[in-house]
Amino acid sequence: MTQLTLSAPLHLQTHAIKVLVLGCGGNGSSFIQSSLYRLHVALKGLGHPYGIIAYLADGADVSETNVLRSAFYPQDVGFNKALLLASRMNMSGLDTDFHAIPRNLTTDDVRAFVTKNDIDFVVGAVDDAKFRADLVNTFKQSTSYYRKDCMYLDMGNASSSGQVVLGHLIKKESHHSHYIPNVYDLFPEIEHVISDKTRSCSARESFDQQGVLVNQQCALLAGRLLNDYLTKNNLQHHGFLFDFDKGVMSPIKANTNNWLIYGYVAPEEQKIT
After folding, report:
1. 176-207 pLDDT, tens per residue?
2. CA 114 to chain centre
3. pLDDT digits (tens, 9 = 90+) for 62-98
């Protein structure tokens, strides 16, 4: 058994932290406004020279249903989600540097963008479970392109439960002794989840699909996890599982024995044995 203590690479203390957010809907919009923006402000307040540079990708416009459970308002309907959120964050006047990508990126687009812009974190906030699996596989097939680590912070939820997982999208540095498994490493079954892409037309249908405050819970947990990873040097978990109906929340421990529960065997441990 190996219990890991996680922390961000030292270069993130002196360089701008570059974050690419995929999806600006229920989870994404809440994460951007409630977590990512606040984390940027906190880092600047703690003396970080640059804070966060964020890139927000989403090709959809705000719908009336989005107003019910996403971080949007009635006057936002009809505007592109990414453009709207980037503008709103930049208007804060607190040295924010948020950029909009007003289209849906393919997995190849993400790979090219990460490579070109030296992205440190990709945040997955899309409803399409298979896309999340394909994204991880796309990066695993082309590791030679990258010069440094890129982490994947994934948010996923059902009507009353969800999970947040931080893991490697690509590992190139020696800072971490182990490759930290991402959501697809721990939950490979997401590849076979069929996402319902139909748009809810009523408040009841919308909340039946996503529940009340589930998106906000995912966003807050993701923000706290990212904060702790960036600001602490002894983090011993890299995710959370929660279920509102059961009234429980559990950490995903950065522990090679704990990973076995999910069927994941750390490659580093295989070499030892």
Report:
1. 999 999 999 999 999 887 665 555 444 444 44
2. 14
3. 999 889 878 899 999 999 999 999 999 999 878 899 9
